[in-house]
Amino acid sequence: MQTVLITGASSGFGAACARAFAKLGWRLVLTARRKGVLDELERELAPLAPVHVLALDVRDRAAVEATLSSLPSEFSEVDLLVNSAGLALGLEPAHKASLDDWDTMVDTNIKGVMYCTRALLPGMVARNRGHIVNIGSVAGSWPYPGGNVYGGTKAFVQQFSRNLRADLLGTAVRVTNIEPGMAETEFSKVRFKGNEEQAQRVYTGTEPLVAQDIADIVVWVSTLPSRVNINSIEVMSVSQSWAPLAVHREK
Ligand code: NDP
Ligand code: 8X3
What we know:
There is one protein chain. With 251 residues, the protein is α/β, with parallel strands linked by helices. Helix content is 41%, strand content 16%. The radius of gyration is 18 Å and the shape is globular. It binds NADPH dihydro-nicotinamide-adenine-dinucleotide phosphate and 2-hydroxyethylsulfonic acid (8X3). NADPH dihydro-nicotinamide-adenine-dinucleotide phosphate (NDP) binds at residues 7-8, 10-14, 32-34, 56-59, 84-87, 108-109, 112, 135, 137, 180, 182-183, 185-187, 190.
């Protein structure tokens, strides 16, 4: 039986991954800040698979180190880490954006991924078995107005994933960066700080990706033969594509 540890398991892609791996009977370590939501998920999934839930803020380096180094023995040999915890805050241009929001995105999307990866990687290398699946974004490759620091954090995740592969050459540990486009989760509600109407407008008239689509991809990349490493996958809804390069014209 394999063990998956998922950050950001209380919602969206992370929660969908938890449900997908429970169906496969994997042992689940589910982490996020909202322990009550994780407890509900544990009640739902416990009939399918062993579940251990942990309240964890990935920005807290000491807590990540302490928690992930003292997992109960039956959950301690993590085969798959899904770094899904993350967020965008705001869509303001750089000269108007909140520096606090920028700090939160850097602390969560960059440092959180660093801390969780660094905590679990030595065990994976020692066992010569394991897989890190990062949730990047199309925003890591493609700029858009208001994407400033959010896109920057996801560009970090993309290059960090590649550099991990470079370091892990010669081991059996795999690394994958999944780069989704627009998907309907709590993402926009968080980005627009609880403004449901503004969040809903992001998806109006479109058929966005759903969390299950990303969970299906995470399951696929992590159940391929051990010789196969999917480096990255960029995935968009059919409703989404690229914009032309912008040109400013004087009136
Ligand atoms: P959700 O808002 O639905 O889920 C985000 C998850 O991250 C929640 O479980 C939340 O849990 C957790 N989280 C946020 N901050 C922290 C923190 N400091 N410590 C621990 N957990 C935290 O959004 P998605 O599922 O859509 O987002 C998952 C990932 O996918 C993110 O990295 C996001 O950037 C990325 N992504 C999303 C896309 C989209 O359009 N939806 C597209 C491309 C990438 P809690 O609040 O309980 O801590
Ligand atoms: C989330 C997708 O396009 O809102 O990473 O940046 S997008």
